[in-house]
Amino acid sequence: MARLAQTHGLTDVQQEILATVRDFVDKEIIPVATELEHRDEYPQQIVDGLKELGVFGLMIPEEYGGLGESLLTYALCVEEIARGWMSVSGIINTHFIVAYMLKQHGTQEQKDYFLPRMAAGETRGAFSMSEPALGSDVSAITSKAVKDGDEYVLNGQKMWLTNGGTSTLVAVLVRSDEGHPEGTAPHKSMTTFLVEKEPGFGEVRPGLTIPGKIDKMGYKGVDTTELIMDGLRIPANRVLGGTTGRGFYQMMDGVEVGRVNVAARGCGVAQRAFELGVSYAQQRHTFGKPIAQHQAIQFKLAEMATKVEAAHAMMVNAARKKDSGERNDLEAGMAKYLASEYCKEVVEDAFRIHGGYGFSKEYEIERLYREAPMLLIGEGTAEIQKMIIGRRLLEEYRFQG
Ligand SMILES: Cc1cc2nc3c(=O)[nH]c(=O)nc-3n(C[C@H](O)[C@H](O)[C@H](O)COP(=O)(O)OP(=O)(O)OC[C@H]3O[C@@H](n4cnc5c(N)ncnc54)[C@H](O)[C@@H]3O)c2cc1C
């Protein structure tokens, strides 16, 4: 049988990269993922292996030491990795978004300084928009930067930084009224700062504290933190792109590719859930036959596989659109929305197929069941995706009365 979620039209290089990553996932991630997740342990050995494979530099141009691959290649690798363990794809995701933002919007000096280190995985990226009082409504950000000579002084509290502790470079979005008079639209008075710091917790740079890991229901292993800025001084040459007031657009650009990425994670987790469900259904017997022989279970498997295929096709479509240089916000929003919803549904069906054993920590599906909900929230909730999709549809289908 052909596996689900095949991608046609890949180059030999793409196929080779994917085969290598899949092999790594099968041998190095799947066998240890559940145990590490239950211990909430950072997968250092896996991260070192991915560094060696060049995954941290996958989309960074070759001139900066990366592999210069497309968003599609990247997303397909993320799908494979998430199939093994979603948290590992989270470790790469924020790094990838920051590298992408630097590539697209950084000054030449910023690219020359950061990208080679990021490609090698020496510098590791996190990005920070959310605050305790806001996530969806980015325009309501209250953290602030005030100019003081050749520096900016940053104050405020950030929330939900994936890789907040382990990263050494955080792209932080704050309000910067300098040069932007009172009453300027919120999205025009925001700036992204490139904040370097030591890894770890506590005061990781004067004026910058990472208090500790947030205790989460799933998505464990990867650290998610708060970030507190109290008189944090950042030189003016660490404003992303060199000009203030462009942060909102830069972050939205980053989040747009991030959405393809989250869609890819949904595809990977759903694929693994299907694999677990279809395997268990052939081993468990009730009423004298494997449960896979009951039509109700076969229908579940059919629905699950159809969802896996549909989500994969939409994710690939969104990635290819971006790679072709076209605007892809509609496709990325649709792919993220559908893949995350389907992922949750496929995981739930696989859980039901496992009966009572799905509730036992001995079975992998228990972990997936706690991981899938994160995809409904990260990089914009379902409601936010539908807002983006709806607005774009009204632009495309404007009533010509
Ligand atoms: C594990 C994890 C990791 C994360 N990592 C990061 C990270 O690395 N960097 C970062 O910046 N953020 C990160 N986030 C934050 C994430 O992006 C936000 O949680 C998300 O955007 C939702 O924001 P919120 O939690 O403030 O919910 P809210 O914005 O308060 O929304 C609450 C509910 O209201 C709905 N809602 C909001 N506005 C509307 C509207 N206009 N119409 C209809 N419904 C609406 C939402 O869909 C949601 O259901 C992470 C979150 C989690 C849980």
From TrEMBL:
<keyword id="KW-0274">FAD</keyword>
<dbReference type="InterPro" id="IPR046373">
    <property type="entry name" value="Acyl-CoA_Oxase/DH_mid-dom_sf"/>
</dbReference>
<dbReference type="Pfam" id="PF02770">
    <property type="entry name" value="Acyl-CoA_dh_M"/>
</dbReference>
<dbReference type="InterPro" id="IPR009100">
    <property type="entry name" value="AcylCoA_DH/oxidase_NM_dom_sf"/>
</dbReference>
<dbReference type="Pfam" id="PF00441">
    <property type="entry name" value="Acyl-CoA_dh_1"/>
</dbReference>
<dbReference type="GO" id="GO:0050660">
    <property type="term" value="F:flavin adenine dinucleotide binding"/>
</dbReference>
<feature type="domain" description="Acyl-CoA dehydrogenase/oxidase C-terminal">
    <location>
        <begin position="245"/>
        <end position="394"/>
    </location>
</feature>
<dbReference type="Pfam" id="PF02771">
    <property type="entry name" value="Acyl-CoA_dh_N"/>
</dbReference>
<dbReference type="InterPro" id="IPR009075">
    <property type="entry name" value="AcylCo_DH/oxidase_C"/>
</dbReference>
<dbReference type="InterPro" id="IPR037069">
    <property type="entry name" value="AcylCoA_DH/ox_N_sf"/>
</dbReference>
<dbReference type="InterPro" id="IPR036250">
    <property type="entry name" value="AcylCo_DH-like_C"/>
</dbReference>
<keyword id="KW-0285">Flavoprotein</keyword>
<comment type="similarity">
    <text>Belongs to the acyl-CoA dehydrogenase family.</text>
</comment>
<dbReference type="InterPro" id="IPR013786">
    <property type="entry name" value="AcylCoA_DH/ox_N"/>
</dbReference>
<dbReference type="InterPro" id="IPR006091">
    <property type="entry name" value="Acyl-CoA_Oxase/DH_mid-dom"/>
</dbReference>
<dbReference type="GO" id="GO:0003995">
    <property type="term" value="F:acyl-CoA dehydrogenase activity"/>
</dbReference>
<feature type="domain" description="Acyl-CoA dehydrogenase/oxidase N-terminal">
    <location>
        <begin position="11"/>
        <end position="122"/>
    </location>
</feature>
<feature type="domain" description="Acyl-CoA oxidase/dehydrogenase middle">
    <location>
        <begin position="126"/>
        <end position="230"/>
    </location>
</feature>
<keyword id="KW-0560">Oxidoreductase</keyword>
<protein>
    <submittedName>
        <fullName>Acyl-CoA dehydrogenase</fullName>
    </submittedName>
</protein>
